[in-house]
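Issue 218. Parser rejects a valid record. Input:
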Amino acid sequence: MILVGAMLAATTGVIAASVIAMGLISLPVMLRYGYDRRLATGVICASGTLAQIIPPSIVLIVLADVLGASVGDMYMGAFPPGAMLVGLLCLYVAVSSLFRPKLAPALPPEARPLRGGRLFWHVLVVMVPPLVLIFLVLGSIFVGIATPSEAGAMGAVGALGLAIVKRRLTRRVLREALDSTLRLSSFVMFILIGSTVFALVFRAVDGDLWVEHLFSLVPGGVVGFLIVVNVLIFLLGFFIDFFEIAFIVLPLLGPVAVKMGLDPVWFAIMIGMNMQTSFLTPPFGFALFYLRSVAPKEVKTLDIYRGIVPFVVVQLIALAVVIAFPQLTTVLRDDPTRRPVKDIEIKIQSYDEPAPEAQPQDDVMRMFGKPSPGKAAPPGGR
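Output the parser choked on:
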């Protein structure tokens, strides 16, 4: 289930789509075969929120725009922490099932009709289309043949192609897709306009300097700053959406982080993993409400709330690992042939300085058969 959530995250980049899809398809099957309600709902909610940190995440795009980082670097930096988080979630489920088999009992033989080569072929047929779509988006960015905007267009074309092959591209589906895209774009644009006005007014009254001075008084230096920021973001995630945090709070924290010498990409990924818990923490955890809207009636809201607690703890452990080992975000970004922009120096030769090898006008004068200044004409020359 967690691996399916990771694939959905890498395919859609939208939490609502992942949670609702798994809630409609997987949750009834898990309950039918005796899976624990808390474990089943927790796995679905936690797997759905992987779309927050696994590229092509909308959250990473927003963070890159707010902090002035490259979207491509953000995607490459977020991939190892996202894979680590998937591994930790799988480890928790495996250990829980091993010590408490009643939480996730094995499926009966009649529920597993496919085995051997037939099962392998079925899995291959099901997994190849989404893997191709993932490569169109992420592979084109990592290989360097497309920018993030171009990769998004390639992903849209690939999704349309898959819908045509599956014979599911109808006028109604296309209209719904365009309508949801327009609504989301308008929603983000108006929040961006409001946050920009807020930031301009805040800076006009020197609010950014006040915030910078405030964090400079925090004991512990960089470590104290990171602790305060993560606690603040985690608490805000209980009550407001990640868009509000990204557009209102981060513009105040980003300049302080840069002046402290922190890598903007690592800082953004750390904030993204922290905000991932905002989708799981009540009372306004959106993943909880997405699952509640499609869950069967026998699943109580309290079961969902209790089921996500251990997965929030696992996500906080992953966040601590990212903070302790920033190198996780630079594994794919380290390239010895790349140089930072600040280290690039462009030298322009002045017009009144002659070139070290020859005068620039020598070749021109020689074309017309005239001697260069200060040189005698060759014998027989014009």
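Fixed in the parser; the record now loads. DSSP finds 17 helices and no strands in the chain.
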